[in-house]
Amino acid sequence: MRSDDFADTAYVRVREAFDGLIRDGREPGAGLSVWRAGREVLRLSGGWADSARTRPFDGATLVQPYSVSKPFAAVAARVAVRDGALELDRPIAGYWPEYGRAGKDRVTLRQVLSHRAGQPRFPEAARGVDPLDGAALRASLAAAAPEYEPGTAIGEHALTYGHLIDGALRAGAGTTLGELFNEVVRPALGLDAWFGVPERELRRVADLEYLDPGWAEQLPSAPWLRIPAGPLDPDTVNSAVWRRSAFGAVNLHTNASSVARFFAGLTGEDGPMARLLGPEVHREFLAPQVTGHDEVFGTELTWTLGLLRDRTKIAKGGIGGSAGWWSFERGHGVAYLTRGLADHARVAAIATALGDDLSVTPLES
């Protein structure tokens, strides 16, 4: 069912592609948004927000988009850099002494934000930890040796990214990832987005469900997502206690309009991101940091301080099928957020209708 839409006449093909996904049953509930020149020019929503199919998915529905969360967590860290509370190239152990153990004494925030800190997954010692026990998960990272010498290899820090940022913020800035994002980043960028959904907003959150029962085990990144148990379990992620928590690598809750607005405001020198971070921090946030083979993605790519970048776009996708991007060629910010966990074929169909290419390619070295 269609619950909410508007579109400029230029987006007929995109509307048809989106309607087809809903009509054919390939999409149980999703939102799509496109922003151009400072305004939203397309918003489509369809399907159902809950597994029981009683609540229509509309433009206000909040979704957990998995790793699309990571750039939002990275912005919180960049605000702390802007304020002088953290430095990109100072060892994190200078703020968080416990983290300096087991060969991590020189790991920097720059390495964390660009997925080179050597901790792409939680250690075996965290296997039995409650995924909502942030203190225990941070302690497990502080105690563990890196999987490779920090700075020498690339691997998306699949579940650890937010806890590493949160640990640095707690120790160096006297705040948490959730507090800094919700109280500073969120209002400054005009986002309907939360790390830790307030109780009054829980009624708007969509249920996640697998479209294929074997989806989680088929993921190429599955080995990096098994510890702790819970982030891929619908019973866990659909619980109120999870939605009210901050698991910064994956559990931002937001809608397509906010994600598209975020990406549309990334690059402009007088845009909202530049105004939030200041010129120097803003430029560094978007600058390529490393190009090479990412062992988790299994491909060659280029990371900035929290985003994927190539010649045509800045982007971030999340397992399950959600994605957001800014197209340099077409001058638009786009987001497709889905509650139906499967591959990225649906968002790829939308990108094709828009004339965008979502393939991950590296910038030339």
Ranges with pLDDT <50 over ≥5 residues?
A: none
Order of helices and strands: EHEEHHHHHEEHHHEHHHEEEEEEEH
Q: What is the CA-atom radius of gyration, in angstroms?
A: 19 Å
- Strand order, main sheet: write it out: 1-3-2-12-11-10-9
Count of extended strands = 13
Overall shape: it is: globular
| Overall pLDDT metric | 96
| Structural category | alpha+beta
Protein described:
The chain has 365 residues and is α+β, with helices and mostly antiparallel strands. 30% of the residues lie in helices and 17% in strands. The chain has 13 helices and 13 strands. It has helices at residues 12-23, 70-82, 109-113, 134-143, 161-172, 177-189, 215-218, 234-237, 240-243, 256-264, 272-277, 279-286, 345-354, and strands at residues 2-7, 29-36, 39-47, 193-194, 209-210, 253-254, 290-294, 299-303, 308-309, 313-318, 322-327, 332-338, 340-341. It has a seven-stranded antiparallel β-sheet, sandwiched between helices. Strands 4-6 form a two-stranded antiparallel sheet. Helix 1 (12-23) runs antiparallel to helix 13, helix 2 crosses helix 6 (177-189) and helix 4 crosses helix 5 (161-172). The radius of gyration is 19 Å and the shape is globular. The mean pLDDT is 96.
